[in-house]
From TrEMBL:
<dbReference type="InterPro" id="IPR003140">
    <property type="entry name" value="PLipase/COase/thioEstase"/>
</dbReference>
<feature type="domain" description="Phospholipase/carboxylesterase/thioesterase">
    <location>
        <begin position="5"/>
        <end position="205"/>
    </location>
</feature>
<keyword id="KW-0378">Hydrolase</keyword>
<dbReference type="Pfam" id="PF02230">
    <property type="entry name" value="Abhydrolase_2"/>
</dbReference>
<comment type="similarity">
    <text>Belongs to the AB hydrolase superfamily. AB hydrolase 2 family.</text>
</comment>
<protein>
    <submittedName>
        <fullName>Esterase</fullName>
    </submittedName>
</protein>
<dbReference type="InterPro" id="IPR029058">
    <property type="entry name" value="AB_hydrolase_fold"/>
</dbReference>
<dbReference type="InterPro" id="IPR050565">
    <property type="entry name" value="LYPA1-2/EST-like"/>
</dbReference>
Length: 209
């Protein structure tokens, strides 16, 4: 596992684990300010900004999977290949914090959100909440696990991952009986602004998880 992850908060009596996953070409360090805002809102949370497992094939930062030559057809396979390391990272921090899946939140942006969302589709999802900013599923939703909450936040002007990806995901999760919220932000492109951060913190500033 790449050791560039940044531990942002380690409260003496942590009740929740929040793991942050950055986007393509970014890093744990770049995403750390989001973790700092979450830690201030949730002083009982063990917060970690996790570093991508591989150097970006686009030249800077880190990535969870390569997008060179990626297509709708091969994206699921690439994410499936990346999933074991992703799960390993989650398990590592759960062990380090002493906090299990039932009190773990995965919060990701773009490629990090894709990985977090797709982790919900495996047989035993590693978290009880997924906050996806500008994310998407790699393929159609297959299941909506009982007890897992999804919070989808997306800029309406996103030119990288179209907002319709979150709209379609929310519709599919609801149809499958899932617990999902959807927030579309006018004027926001592929990024996180004050509104998106406020929404993410609001979903995390709850009693469970």
């Amino acid at each position: 596992m790449h050791d560039g992850s940044i531990v942002i908060a380690t409260p003496a009596q942590a009740r929740h684990l929040v793991l942050l996953f950055h986007g393509l070409g970014s890093s744990a360090d770049n995403f750390a300010p989001v973790g700092g805002a979450i830690a201030r809102a949730r002083p009982d949370a063990f917060v970690v900004s996790v570093d991508g497992h591989h150097p970006s094939t686009l030249g800077s930062g880190r990535e969870w999977f390569s997008v060179v030559g990626i297509t709708e057809e091969n994206r699921p396979e690439r994410i499936a290949d990346a999933m074991p390391l992703f799960q390993e990272s989650i398990a590592y921090w759960q062990k380090a914090s002493g906090i299990g899946a039932g009190d773990t939140t995965l919060a990701g942006f773009s490629q990090g959100a894709i990985m977090a969302l797709e982790s919900s589709q495996i047989e035993r999802p590693p978290a009880a909440r997924v906050v996806a900013l500008a994310g998407r599923f790699a393929q159609a939703v297959r299941r909506a696990p009982t007890g897992l909450k999804f919070h989808l936040i997306h800029g309406e002007q996103d030119g990288v991952v179209p907002a319709r990806a979150s709209v379609e995901a929310a519709r599919a999760l609801q149809a499958a009986g899932g617990d999902v919220t959807l927030d579309l932000l006018p004027g926001l492109g592929h990024g996180i602004d004050a509104r998106a951060l406020r929404l993410a913190i609001g979903y995390l500033d709850r009693s469970h998880p």
